[in-house]
Amino acid sequence: MGQLRVEKEKIAYARQLAKEIAGDMDQFIAQRSTVASERTVLRLLGIDGVADFVPYPNLVVEHLQDKGLLEQGAYAPVLNAMLAWDCSAQQIAERVAAGDVHLDKVPQVSAQRYEEASRQVVAERLALLERRKQERDTYIQRWGDGEQPYLYVIVATGDIYEDVTQAKAAARQGADIVAVIRSTGQSLLDYVPYGITREGYGGTYATQENFRVMREALDEVGEELGRYIRLCNYCSGLCMPEIAAAGALERLDVMLNDALYGILFRDINMQRTLVDQYFSRMINAYAGVIINTGEDNYLTTADAVEAAHTVLASQFINEQFAFRSGLTAAQQGLGHAFEINPELEDGFLLELAQAQLARQIFPEATLKYMPPTKHMTGNIFKGHIQDALFNVVSIMTKQGIQLLGMMTEAMHTPFMHDRKLAIENAQYVFRTMKTLGDELEFKEGGKIERRAQQVLEEAIQLLQDVRDQGLFLALEEGRFADVKRSREGGRGLSGVFLKAPSYHNPFEDELRSRLGLEARKAQLAGGREA
Question: Is the pTM of this model over 0.90?
Fold first, then answer.
């Protein structure tokens, strides 16, 4: 499509402001870890399962807290015990849970033996993630991949086997991405449920076993169709890095993984979220996962016209946090939404301006575009038209991931025939308007261009304010989504702790090295010395 006339210097300035905002948080994040990040280390070591319904990673971390060892990190005490008693990580966890092992009383193995074993363990465990990534590449090479915008639909029955039935049906209807919506409230659980689940409220629990079941099912239907079907789930919440690790181990392709969403919409403590998002995104980066961010949700609590600039400012910030964790631009599904009141005159023009502005500013991102929800009603015919207009904007501006709108959005969780109609709607628009954007140019000084320039100017002002006052204070003042949060409030703060000088997480160190983040490590080391 013809380009909007927005000053490249202003875009560069906005990106620099966001870089400074994210950079200001680097020292804070680097000096801290969380119980969820340490449980993730244990999961990467191979610990899984439950004892009396409590996950083993939780039991081991709680044991380390009781013994005053957690500030050193969970990795070293467990690996030392593995070497001292010639056990697997899983066996150590089971013995800790049974009370047979106290990790503060394990004989210390020699430094040489520890270092040699550590290098081998980390290499072997990360090789599992690498193999899963290679599997994805092999399937895509064999079967091919859908064209962007990817058609994204949801299943949300609560029963993983019913989800499988609906997911296969959606794939046969033309879906490129199937998202299994999590059970309501799971993001507030400070543990990852275990095993196959057949009940949930408003969705299905995100468990590693459920990931495995759905991944196998989508591979089966992918073989049938000769097309790779991507699987999406959610790793936002109190277990962000743990679920990222589970998803990487089971070859998920897309993860909801936002630096701010849990703070704003789930009242998860901002310190906890910002620390956890760093490690979780490193895992997603290495696993080749596309992360989706949640700026679209801002427009469910704030007016889509007045708050458009907050979406753009947050996209800039999320981009910079993502880069700091090693994610490429193509792995970033930066979120926005078609949420302007349909009764507003020329509202379509404003929607087009926002979508095109996002595409120009983030040209390599796999932009995630959300359908109308806030202004959907029980009038399914009008809703179907709203969704069609949403699809028009997407194909004109070359969005990356199209979360298909359902005409029954305001009534119930979509049925299989609702999805079929939504997919047919998008396919019709995408097919008949495939290169429409290439044929059009924007009127210089017209409404669309002026709107884009206004949104960028307001985003810059917001980014300047956030840079000057700091991200924590900006969140406390409700600068995003009209939601105010306290830096000492919300869920999960008790799970944040300062790292001891002896803190050790070789998974993070190795991922940082493989993702080319050594410069960041050197900068942080210099900051600590200063």
Answer: yes
